Hints:
By secondary structure, chain A is α/β, with parallel strands linked by helices. Chain A contains 21 helices and 15 strands.
Amino acid sequence: MAVLFTPDYLTMLEGIPYPAMILNDRSRIQAMNRLMQAITGYAIENVRGVHGELVVRSNAGNTRGQNYNKVLQTGEPMSVTGDILNRFRRKIPTLYHISRIKDAQQSLGLLVIVEDTTGRASEGDAVENNYASQELIGHSPQMQKVFDMIPLMSQTDASVLITGETGTGKDKIAELIHAESSRARYPFIKVNCGALPTDLLESELFGHVKGAFTGATRNKQGMFKLADRGTLFLTEIGDMPLPLQVKLLSVLDDSKFIPVGGEQSVEVDVRIIAATHRPLREQVKRNEFREDLFYRLNVLHVHLPSLRERQSDIRYLLDHFLQKFNKALGKNIVGFTPLASQILSAYAFPGNVRELRNIVEYAVNVCKRKKISDQNLPPYIFDKQLIVSEMVTTEPESVPDSKAQVKAAVALEPAIGITDGSSGNGNESWGDIERQMIVDALLTNGGNRTTTSEQLGWGRMKLWRKMKKYGLL
Amino acid sequence: MRKLLMPIQGDYVAPRFDLATEVYVARFEDGKVIGEPKTIIMEKPSDEELCHMIIEEHISDVICGGIEEIHYNFLVWKKIVVKDGVIARWEDAFQLLLDGTLGQGDIVLDESDALGIL
């Protein structure tokens, strides 16, 4: 009789194309495949022996490991939909499969497979609805341009560079590109390149081998390995130290790297999305960012406009966040008083959508009436005349529709006085900014309207209309 | 004086902030517990209500397991010290906080945890 082939279970686990783990009869983790480590954010070395539910934090009725116990007792496999909350504070919709297994000694255990259904959930949804669910709200032409690019960027594996001021939604765009891509069922890993010193960041990205440095007591897989077949989102790429930029460039070119202290190269298939609020081209000029890496990352580029550049969206965003926090806090606030609307319309929102959201959240919390008044707005927005100057959002020149550097000065208090109270007004101050923007762009381009309109991201007719409006003709 | 709120489940820090129905609240100062800690049983799990409770109770420190980014950011914005991603028996986690050695995302378990009740 032929000897039965009994494969090594760890190899088998790696062969499962979904996050998977094996638990013992007390629901303690024995093994996890790489995808499970990526989706949960925990390395197996750190969580071996820990109760599965403490690591794969699901809402699929598994409180106190009830599902695990049921499957262990009955032997009936179970599939439940729900979500998990990972170490990176991300909630991921999942299909949770639990089945009972036995080892050679007939001891019981569990095989748990967690299927990320993010991509599936978006299938069939209207694109706009899908974006809205990600809190990507914008009806302005600038945002529509961004939305139009997402499907294109999702269909390719080319590197994407996302630029935009802080709070404009760079992370959300990156997640959306991943979720809409064919890599959606594989990990989306985010690494903040500005948050760690060089050595730690290198180890975080590329992993290290045991003994590579003091304290490296075991092998550690880096984020590149964990993101294999998925997407690695490198945020604050402009803050990445130069020595690491060289290594990153080499990975992008060869799709392989050598972990810190290691000898053997590791091959990976990772799509890179990078983001920064810094003017990368300026950094290249100042030799703070490698030019070759810049071009390697800047294959596809998307620039997220600041709120000042898409003021028409402010009203939609205010309404959206008002509804959201009304629901969350059980309130029934119907809107904003005319004065509060004027103040918010005139405010420059240097923190962009994130700041707007926080302001609405604050206002909903403190508002005791039906409408949010100026009294309910955070005091800091009245502290002084907010001068937003030299808020530079420089884009790479290679992008055909790059927009202007915005040099704006917003005087908040005078704007409050002169607006007439109708919705969307506060345009007096925005008008001043826009007029100045046009003047600056015309000066830069020696009065050439074609290059000026290109620089401002407008058509020539729009520039002409604006110039006429502001008496510049 | 500082005031801690920690969602708990069985012997452990609750794996999820939004699903916790039991919270432990204690006052402490200079590494020592002040007064009698209390345990609050919530009617139903709700991350929004927990955030509300944290503000109402003037909590200064939160220890929790998984928490969504939006709630984490909210609490940090409210100047609350949040140690999230903690996997530990809740008593151990609190002791480490009192000692000033509890870190973000700490996993503090030993051999006996193979039998701990979740």
